[in-house]
């Protein structure tokens, strides 16, 4: 059956959490990287479907999600919400001194305990996004379609541009984003930031 794109539905949440885990190691299966399989999804999937469900879309096969795009049009406001309402409970669940299964989990745990409201936001790129596809959904042009539809929504909301992060080892993803108009604007240990202007 052909894979299709549709709007997010709340019944998709368990599948989005699973996709986040299965792509949670620089695009590879991150199951062995996390002491709790729900950890990464609670940080990089769940807050977006709570805060900005209208911007979430899924790729599905037989109505089962096999990929998604999600994000926010206002990063500054989103991070204030995370800091004040979302992260306190998560930080109690995953304390900074907890035993981690890998350096990957340690890295994301450190981010979880960093004050998100202090993150600097480039006014040229006030929005950000996350896109993840399981291997069965890759190479079919679906990622490009998701980005097109997502950025059209951002433009309708008046956003000037959007950014995303990926790992420096994820060369396949970096090349994909560059083919879709993103440019590398920052490189740090463990992270590459790419951005797309919508003006």
Describe the structure in your own words.
With 199 residues, this protein is an alpha+beta fold. Helix content is 38%, strand content 22%. The protein has helices spanning 13-22, 39-44, 46-51, 75-93, 103-112, 142-156, 171-179, and strands spanning 4-7, 57-61, 64-72, 127-133, 161-166, 183-188, 191-197. A 7-stranded mixed sheet has the order 1-2-3-4-5-7-6, sandwiched between helices. The radius of gyration is 16 Å and the shape is globular. The termini are far apart.
Question: Could you name the key traits of this structure?
Answer:
199 residues, alpha+beta, 22% strand, single chain, 7-stranded mixed beta sheet
Low-confidence stretches: none
**What percent of residues are in strands?**
15-25%
Q: Whole-number radius of gyration?
A: 16 Å
Number of helices: 7
Helices and strands, with pairings:
Layout: E1 4-7, H1 13-22, H2 39-44, H3 46-51, E2 57-61, E3 64-72, H4 75-93, H5 103-112, E4 127-133, H6 142-156, E5 161-166, H7 171-179, E6 183-188, E7 191-197
Parallel strand pairs: 4-5
Antiparallel strand pairs: 1-2, 2-3, 3-4, 5-7, 6-7
What's this model, at a glance?
By secondary structure, the protein is an alpha+beta fold. The protein contains 7 helices and 7 strands, in the order βαααββααβαβαββ. The protein has a 7-stranded mixed beta sheet with strand order 1-2-3-4-5-7-6, sandwiched between helices.
């Amino acid at each position: 059956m052909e894979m299709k794109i549709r709007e997010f539905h709340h019944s998709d949440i368990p599948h989005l959490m699973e996709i986040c885990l299965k792509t949670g190691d620089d695009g590879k299966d991150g199951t062995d990287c996390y002491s709790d399989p729900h950890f990464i999804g609670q940080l990089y999937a769940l807050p977006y479907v709570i805060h900005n469900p209208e911007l979430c879309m899924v790729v599905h096969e037989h109505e089962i999600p096999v990929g998604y795009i999600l994000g926010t049009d206002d990063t500054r406001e989103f991070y204030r919400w995370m800091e004040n309402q979302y992260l306190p409970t998560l930080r109690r669940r995953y304390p900074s001194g907890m035993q981690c299964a890998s350096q990957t989990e340690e890295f994301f745990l450190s981010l979880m305990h960093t004050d998100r409201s202090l993150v600097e936001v480039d006014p040229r790129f006030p929005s950000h996004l996350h896109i993840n596809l399981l291997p069965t959904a890759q190479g079919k042009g679906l990622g490009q379609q998701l980005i097109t539809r997502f950025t059209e929504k951002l433009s309708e909301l008046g956003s000037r541009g959007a950014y995303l992060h990926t790992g420096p080892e994820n060369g396949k993803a970096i090349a994909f984003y560059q083919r879709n108009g993103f440019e590398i604007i920052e490189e740090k240990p463990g992270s590459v930031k790419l951005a797309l202007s919508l003006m």
